[in-house]
Write a structure and sequence with these properties.
The structure is a single chain. The protein is an alpha+beta fold. Helices cover 39% and strands 14% of the residues. It is built from 8 helices and 6 strands. The chain has a 4-stranded antiparallel β-sheet. A two-stranded parallel ribbon has the order 4-6. Strand 2 and strand 3 form a beta hairpin. The chain is globular. The two termini are 23 Å apart.
Length: 181
Amino acid sequence: MSQWVPVYQASEAAVKSELATFFSVFPNGTVWAGINEGTGFDLVMLGTDQPTRIDLAGMQTRASQPEFAPVAQSLLGVGFRTPFELMAAYLGRPADLATWTAGAVINRDRRPWLQYRAGWDSYSEQRHDLFDVIARYRRFPSGLFVGSQALQQAVRDAGAAPPPARSGPANSPTPGPGPRP
C-alpha cells in the first residue's frame, strides 16, 4: 500500500494524524521523502504486512542490467542518479516518529477528522519547514537495508550528495543539497 502526503499544503497536526493513522494500520510502514530542488516537498508512505527488507546487492545487480535503463532514465528524470539516492530518501518508521506523532488524532471511518482538517488547511497559511521538523527524527534504518557495510555506506553517502543539475526545455539547472539519512 502506498499513500502520497502533500506536506506543502498541510498543517503539522494533519500530517501527524496522517502518519499516526497509517502506522496504526501498517505498523511495519515506512515514510520516504519526496525531494524537490533539494528540499522536502511531500512524503510517500509505504505499508506492508511484514517488515520491509531491501536487498541492496540485488538492487545493485538489477540496476546494472541493460533492461534497467528505462528505470534509470525515469529515476534521473526525478533527480535520482542512482538507486542508492532513491534509498537515501528514507525518512522513518513508526518507532522513529513515535515521539513526534504521540497524541495525534487517529482518523477513523466514524471520525473522519482529516477530511475536514485537510480542507481547512488548504485555505490557511502552513509552515514551510514541516519537512525539516519530521527529518529531525530520521535515523539510518537498521534492518531495512540488507547488504554489506559498503553498500549501506553507499546509501548514506548518496544522501549527502547534491542532486544532479536538471536540464531540458522545461527545466533549468537547479543544483542543491540532497536528502540526508
